[in-house]
Amino acid sequence: MILTQIVNKMVASPQITPTATTTLADRILADLTAEIVEGDLSPGEKLREPDLARRFGTSRGPLRDALRRLESRRLVVTTPNAGARVVSLSHEQLLALYELREALEGQTARLAAERISASELGELERLLDTHAAEIERRNGREYFRQQGDLDFHFRIAKASGNALLYDTLCVDHYQLMRLYRTKFSNRFGRPNRALAEHRRVLDALKDRDGELAELLMRRHIRAARDTIAAEPSTSTTNEHQL
Amino acid sequence: MILTQIVNKMVASPQITPTATTTLADRILADLTAEIVEGDLSPGEKLREPDLARRFGTSRGPLRDALRRLESRRLVVTTPNAGARVVSLSHEQLLALYELREALEGQTARLAAERISASELGELERLLDTHAAEIERRNGREYFRQQGDLDFHFRIAKASGNALLYDTLCVDHYQLMRLYRTKFSNRFGRPNRALAEHRRVLDALKDRDGELAELLMRRHIRAARDTIAAEPSTSTTNEHQL
DNA sequence: CGATCTGTTATTGTTGACAATACATAGCCG
DNA sequence: CGGCTATGTATTGTCAACAATAACAGATCG
Question: Which pairing describes strands A46-47 and A83-86: parallel, antiparallel, or unpaired?
C-alpha cells in the first residue's frame, strides 16, 4: 500500500526524475490527485481554496497552481469566480471517455506494432503471464489487477514511440480513467475475457500487424464501453450541488 | 448588478457566453496565445515572468496562471525553477502531432457519420463551396483558406457529439496545430487535393458510412503528414537556447 | 592555461494582505 | 404569503514583498 502510494505520486507528476526538485504545487497536486481518485473527495465536491491551503499548510498560491494542473488533467472543473469542484462525469461523458480511449489506444497499438522492440515484447508477455496467475487465484487483490491492466495499455502507448500520444493518454487522462474504472472493472467474466483480448493484441504486435493490432485494441476497449453502456445510468449521476 | 445577474444566467447555459466575466489571466492567455501563434514570440524563446507582467500591466499572479494554461495547451514548456519557454517542436514531434490528429479526427469522422444532423451537413456543404470559390481565385487570402480548412475539421469534431474528443482536439491542440501548419499548408497542388478529400469525407458522412468516413479522414491527414515528412528536417530545428 | 570553487545577480517559488465578485440570509413590498 | 431586493458574509481574483533556487562571473588553485 505504501508502494502503491509512491507509484501514484510518481505517475501524478510525470517526467520528473526521482531526485528532481519538488515544488509545493507538485506535492499538493500528487496528494489531491490521490484523494480524488481514491474517493476521499467525492465527485462534485466543492474545493475551497482557503480550506485546502490550511489543510496542506501552504498559502493559496501553490494551491491554485495545483488546481490548474488538475483542471488540465480533467480531474477538476473550474468556473471563473465560482471556484473548483471535483469532476463528476455523467453517464454520457463516461461513454465519451471510452470513445476517446478507443481512438487513442487504437493508434498506439497500430504504431507499436511497427516500432516495439523485442525486449518490450518480452516484458508484455511476462506481464500477461502475471495477470493470468493473478486471475487464477481469484480475489487476489483486485486493485493490483486494475493496475496491471492499465500497465499493459500504457506499455503499448510507450512502445508507440509517440510521446504526444503517450502524454495525452497516460498523463492527461490516466487518473480520470482510474477514477471511473473502479466501478465497472471486475464484472463477472470480464477479467478472463479481457486477458484473452490482451493476448490477441500481443500476438498481433508480435506479427508486426499494425492494422490488426488496432482493430483488436479498439474492439477490446469497445467491449469495456459496452459493459458500461448496459449499466443503469443512475450509478453515475451529475447532480452533486453540495 | 441586475446586469450581472442576467449575465450569470447566461453563463448557466453552458459553453457559449457572449459577455462572460473575463479575468486578467484570461486576457493574458488570449494575448500570449496570439503572439505565439502569429510568430511575435519565436519558438524556444524564454518567457520571463517579470518582463511579461510589466508588459501586460499586471502582477505575476495572473501571468503564472496564464502560463500554466498555455502549458496544458502545449504552447509553452516549463521546467521547475527554470521558467517557461515557447514550445519548439522537432521534426519528429511535428510528425507525432499528425499521428495524434489522425487518431482523434478519424474517430470524430466515424462518430459524426452516425450523429451529424441534416442542417450540419448542409453547413458543411456550403463551407466546401466557399473553399472551392476561394481556391478558384488564387492567392485570395491564404489565411482564410487556412482558417476555413480547420473549420471543416472542427465542425466535424463538433458533430461527433463527443465533447471530450472535441476539447482534446479543438481546445488542447488547436493553436499548436495552427502554429505549425502555416509552414506547410499551401504546397503546390495540395489545396485542390485537400478540397477533393474533404468532399469525399462529406459524401461518406451523408451516406452515414462511419467506417468509410474514418478511413478517408485518416488518409487525408496522413497525406498532409507525408507532405511534411518529405520536408528537409532542418526547417524545424529544436536548437533554440536563447 | 584550464577547471573548479565561490560570491553575486537575476529569476522563480511562496506568502499574506487587499479588492472584487458571488452566495446566502433576512427584510420589504405587492 | 410569495417573490424580489438589499445587506452581510464567504470565496475568488489580484497585488507587492520576501525567500529560495539557479544561472553567471570572477577569482583561485592545480
Answer: antiparallel
Q: In what order do the strands lie in the sheet with A76-79?
A: A46-47, A83-86, A76-79
Whether the CB of B82 is less than 7 Å away from nucleic strand D comes out as yes
Q: How far is the CA of A50 from the C1' of D9 (A)?
A: 15
Q: Say whether B99 and A165 touch across the interface (CB within 8 A).
A: yes
Q: Which of the residue ranges A83-92, A117-126, B187-196 would you say has the lowest mean pLDDT?
A: B187-196
User: With 90 as the cut, is the pLDDT of residue B235 above it?
Assistant: no
* pTM for the structure as a whole: 0.87
Predicted local confidence at residue A93, as pLDDT: 96
Rg of chain A taking only CA atoms, in angstroms: 19
Dist. CA B105–CA B215, nearest whole Å: 10
* Residue B99 contacts residue B228 (beta carbons within 8 Å): no
Question: Which residue in chain B has the smallest CA separation from A24?
Answer: B80
Q: What is the DSSP letter of A236?
A: S
Question: Which of A67, A87, A64, A90 lies closest to A77, judged by CA?
Answer: A87
The residues facing B46 across adjacent strands are: B85
Give helix B49-56 / helix B24-37 axis angle, nearest 10°. Answer: 110
Cα(A61)–Cα(A80) distance, integer angstroms? 16
**Residue B20: alpha-carbon gap to chain centroid:** 22
